[in-house]
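#struct-pred
JK: can someone run the complex with 7,8-dihydro-7,7-dimethyl-6-hydroxypterin? inputs below
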Amino acid sequence: MTTAYIGLGSNLEKPLEQIRRAIKTLSQHPSLHNISVSNIYGSKPVGPQDQPDYVNAAARFDTALSSIALLDLLQGIEQDHQRVRERHWGPRTLDLDLLLYGNEQIDLPRLTVPHPFMLERGFVIQPLHDLAPDILLANGTTVTEQLHQLDTSDLVIITEE
Ligand code: ROI
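RT: done, C-alpha cells with the ligand placed:
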C-alpha cells in the first residue's frame, strides 16, 4: 500500500458540486482506502485572471495501485465529469492532480511527482496542510513551513469537512 495525496480543483459547472461528486466517487472506489478530505476552499485563479474563481480541496488515501494506474483512474474520473479544458491554465470542470505518491519521485512523460508546481500554490498547500501538516516536501520543509512562505489571503473556507 502506498499513501497518496491529490489536489482537486474546479471552476466551471457548479464547482462545489463537482468537487463533492468527485470526493464521493473517490470514497466509493474499491481501490482507494482510508480516504480523508481537507476543508473545501474558494480561491482566486492563479494564472489568467479572466476566469471564474476556483473551488479547491485535497484528499489522502492508501492504494495498492501503481502511480500510472492511479493516474488512469483519476483521469477517468475527470472524463466522467465531462471535463472541459479550454486552454492551458484556463478554466476546467474538474482537475485531479496527483501531488504525492509515497516518497516516490516520478519522471515519466505523462506524470511528474511530486507535482512540479505544488510548492508555490496556496490552493494546494493550504488543503494539504489540513491533512498532513508535518510531512516533508521535496524542498525539505514541512507543509506547515511551506504554508508560511505563501500568500493565502485569497483563500476562504467554504465547508469544514
Ligand atoms: N487557480 C486556482 N486558484 N485553483 C486551481 O485549481 C487552479 N488550477 C489551475 C490554474 C489554471 C493554474 N489555476 C488555478 O490549473
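RT: quick notes.
Residues 9, 43-47, 54, 56, 89, 95, 123 surround 7,8-dihydro-7,7-dimethyl-6-hydroxypterin (CB under 6 Å).
The CA atoms of residues 15 and 131 lie 21 Å apart.
JK: thanks, will look after standup
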